[in-house]
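Appendix B. Extra example for self-study. Work through it before the problem class; the solution is given directly after the inputs so you can check yourself.
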Amino acid sequence: MREQAAPTRPAARGRTVRHPSPKEYIRIAVVLGAITAMEVAIYYLDLPRGILIPFLFLLSALKFALVVLWYMHLKFDSRMYARLFMIGIAGAMTLYIVVLLTFRAFAG
Amino acid sequence: MALAGHAVESEHEATSTGLPNTKLAMWLFLASDCLLFGALISSYVLYRGASVTGPYPGEVFDIPYTSVSSFVLLASSLTMVLALAAVQRGELGRARVWLLATALLGMTFVGGQVYEFTTFYREGLSLSTNLFGTTFYVLTGFHGTHVAIGILMLLTLVAMSFVGMVTQRNSMAVELVGLYWHFVDIVWIVIFTVVYLIPTGT
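Solution. C-alpha cells for the complete assembly:
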C-alpha cells in the first residue's frame, strides 16, 4: 500500500529589512528622556493654559512618533503595518473627539 | 539620522500578503487596543473637573514621582529593542539579559503604580469616591494590567529561549512581544500628558 504524502507546508519566505543599530536606539532613548524632562519642566512653569496644553500635546506627539517609527520599526517595515495602525488611531481619535464634542467636554 | 543599522531577515510561511500573519495580527490587535484606551482616556477627559467632592487631582498627584515612573517605562522600551537587536544578531545570552532587564523595569513601574494607588487610597480617593477616582483608577488600572501581562510575556520569552524556541532565525516571538511592550509605552506617554501634566483647574 502506497503511503500518502503528508501535505507540504508552503515554502518559507525571507524578507530583509533594515533595523537601526543599538547606538541609534540609545540616541532615541536620550531624546525621549530629554523630551520627558522638558515636559516636566514646562509643567512647573506658570504658563497660560492656552500655551501649556498645545505645547504638552506637541511634545507628547513627538515622543509617540519616535517610539512608533523607531522602536516599533514602522519607519523601516512594510507600510501595511503602518496603515493598519493608523486606521486604529484615526478611528479612535475621530470617534472620541466626536463623543467629547457631543458632550461639550471642551466648553469652558 | 543616518541608517547605520543591521539587516534583519525574518523567515515566515508564505502568505497572500507576503507578510507574516502573526505580525499583521499583532498590529491589528494594537489598532483595536487604541479604541479601548481611547474610550478610557475620553471618559477621563469628559469627567475632568466634574467631581463635586475631593480629593481632586491637584491634591493627590505627585508629579516628580510619576515622572520617575515615566522614565522607568521609557528605559524599558530601550532595553526591549536592545533585546530584539541582540536576538536578531544571534546573541542569545545578551538578549536574555535585556529581556530580564525589561521585565525588571516593568515590575518597577507596576510596583510604583501599586504604591501610588495605595497612597491615593489612604488620602481618601477610592474607585467610588468621585468621578475623578473612578475614571483615574479604571484608566491607569487597565494600563497597569497591560504592563503586568507584558511582564508575563517577557518572562515566558526568557523561558522559551532556554528550550530553543527563541533563536536568531526564529525571533518573531520577541518582535511581537516588543510591539506590545512599546504600545504600552506609547499609551503611557499619552496618559502622562493628559492625566498628570495637564492641569484640571480644580
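Self-check: Chain B has one domain: 21-48+63-197. If your reasoning did not lead you there, revisit section 3.
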